[in-house]
Design a protein that fits this description.
Blueprint (H helix, E strand, L loop, with lengths): L4 E6 L7 H16 L2 E6 L21 H12 L2 E7 L7 H10 L6 E2 L8 E2 L5 E7 L4 H6 L4 H14 L4 E6 L7 H17 L2
Parallel strand pairs: 1-2, 1-3, 3-6, 6-7
Antiparallel strand pairs: 4-5
Helix pairs in contact: 1-6
């Protein structure tokens, strides 16, 4: 039986952040557990984040977006870590999906039913979000909108299933003890390949 293939993306546009610690820890534990693991950092990626011509005039993917796409095609399980900014993911991270999850690659709109064919079936995903917004208010006050966008309208739309979410908050003023506890949760997810 082949090893599970896990792709971890640190989706914070800066390197010196708790998101990177989470992504690194997940990838390290995943590798130590015996899963095949690949990792990218958004902060290292260079590309135009804007889908300037829409789907009518697609610009070629830059090498870093090609690498991201190859990891997506390769993986069985995708893990994305990012901060919650203005109720969603950072603009540069959204640009990764705008530019690389394209018709004919991530989904096929030609079926004509209004619901395109999902071309990334057979993959699962875990999205880990850090936030200063308390979880209870994120769920009650904001109706967990970021989960809906990423889970239903991006990953789920293209076939990822299940898409699971974990939120660590509030990050601001969190203690070292709290962060160690969060990293223990990350390790448990990594060992389970979830």
């Amino acid at each position: 039986m082949s090893k599970k293939k896990i792709f971890v993306l640190n989706g914070h546009p800066r390197q010196d952040c708790f998101c990177k610690a989470i992504a690194d820890h997940y990838a390290d534990v995943s590798s130590q557990t015996g899963y095949e693991t690949r990792q990218l950092n958004l902060a290292d990626m260079k590309f135009n984040i804007s889908l300037d011509g829409g789907y009518r005039d697609l610009q070629p993917l830059e090498p870093d977006l090609e690498a991201f796409w190859q990891h997506i095609e390769w993986c069985d399980h995708f893990v994305m870590v990012h901060p919650l900014w203005w109720g969603g993911m950072p603009a540069k991270l959204k640009g990764v999906f705008d530019r690389s999850f394209l018709p004919g690659k991530a989904f096929d709109p030609s079926k004509g039913s209004g619901f395109p064919e999902k071309l990334l079936k057979g993959r699962s995903a875990r999205v880990i979000i850090t936030s200063d917004t308390p979880k209870w208010y994120f769920n009650w006050g904001y109706s967990a909108a970021a989960f809906k966008q990423t889970g239903r309208q991006i990953l789920g739309y293209c076939g990822f299933k299940p898409v699971s979410f974990t939120m660590f908050s509030p990050i601001q003023n969190s203690t070292d003890k709290q962060r160690v506890a969060w990293l223990k949760q990350v390790a448990a997810m990594a060992r389970a390949g979830k």
